[in-house]
Specification:
It is a single chain. This protein is an alpha+beta fold. It contains eight helices and 15 strands. It has helices spanning 13-30, 33-38, 41-52, 142-197, 242-261, 271-286, 323-336, 355-367, and strands spanning 5-6, 58-59, 65-74, 91-104, 123-127, 130-137, 290-291, 294-296, 299-301, 303-307, 310-319, 342-350, 372-375, 383-390, 393-406. The radius of gyration is 32 Å and the shape is elongated. It folds into two domains: 5-172, no CATH class; 242-406, no CATH class.
Amino acid sequence: MAREDYLFTGPDWFSVDRHQRQQMAAEIDKVDADRLLNTSVEDLASYFAEKFKIAVPVLDTENLVVDQREKQIDVSRDSMRMIRDRSRPFYITGTEIEIEVPFSGEAEAFKIQPNPYTLSPPLASVRGTTLAFSIAGTNLDADGVRTQIDRTVSAIQSYLDNLRVNVAGLNEQLPGEARAAIEARRTKLLANRNMVATLGFKMKERPNASKTFVTTEVRRKISPVMPMASSAPFKPEPALATADYEHILGVMQNMTQVMELSPSAFHDVDEEALRSHFLVQLNGHYQGQATGETFNYEGKTDILIRSEGKNIFIAECKFWSGPKMLTETIDQLLGYSSWRDTKTAVVLFNRNRDFSKVLSAIPETMRSHAQYKRDLPGATETTFRYQFANRDDRNRELFLTVLAFDVPTPRQQ
C-alpha cells in the first residue's frame, strides 16, 4: 500500500485561485497572433476556461471496497500491556483493514487546502482514481471499524464540500475572464496592424514565427482541445453592426405585424410576393441595397444586403411545413455564407397549424444541426437566436435569428 499522508495540506485555495487566473492570462498572451485572430472568440474562451477550471473530486462511496490482512503491529507504547522494555518495538500479530474509495475528478485537488479547513486533516493515499486508507489494530471489531470508516470518509467529504464552494466561483468566472483577455488582445493586435498598414510599406515576414499553437499538458482525465484555426494572416472583413442587424429584424417584424393585423390582404400571398413586401420596406431604409434572387456562392437567396462587394445580411422567408423544411433552409443559408461574422435570419410563417407546436419544434431542430454552436441571448417566445459555424470552417461564425409568425386565415364568409 502507498504511504498514507495528510490530504488537503498543499497550497492554500487563494494561491491556487490566483495561479489559475494568472496562468490562463499568460497562455492567452502566448497564442500566435494570427491563430488568435482566426479563431472563434467563444470557442477559444471555452477552451481556456475548460483547461484551467478545477474538477473537484467526487467520491463514489457506493463502490467502496475493503480488504483484510494480517499485520505486525508495534504495541510497545500500549499502556494497557505488560511490557518490561518500552524503549524497543514489541510486535504482535494484528489485523489491517484497507479501504479503497473510487473517485472522479482531479486527483491534484486533494492537495489543495480549502477555505475553511481544520487542523486535523484526514490521512489517505491517492492511487490514480482511487483514494485508500487503512485501519489497523490487535482487537478490531466490525462496529468499530465501520465507525472509523464513516468518520474518515465524512472528514474527506467535508473538505471536498468546502473546496467545491471555493472552486465554483473560479469555474464560473473563467469563461468571462478568458473572453475579456482574448478580446483585449484582439483589439490591440488589430489596432497595431491597422497602424502599420497606414504607413504604406510592406510588412516584413518573420521566418521563425510560430504557425501553430501547442498546448501544454493538463492534469485531468480528458484534456480540452485547442480549436482548429488557420495561422494565415488575418484579414478583417466587412460586418454588419449589431445595431443595424437589430434594426433590420425590427423592420421585418413590423412588416409581419401588418400581415397579422390584416390577414385577408395576405391570404393568397406566396413566398415570392412576401419577399417583395419585405424588400420594399428594407429598400426604404437601406437605399436600395436589398435585392431579391441575388446569386451568391452556390445559389440564390430570398433577401440579401451587400456592402463593399461583400454580403453582410441574408434572410430566407418560408412557410412552415415541418422540421425538415427548417433544416433544409439552414443548409441553404450555410451554402450562401462564405464570410465571417455574417448576420442571417429565417422568417417562418405559420398558416393553419398548431403554432405552439411549431414554436416548440424550432429549438430542437436548430440545436440538432451539425453546424450549431450555441444559443445567443435575446430570445423571446417567437424569436430564437443562435450562432452557427460556416460549414467549411468552424471559426467562421454567423448569427442566425429565427422569427416565427402566425399568419391567421380569414374566416370564410
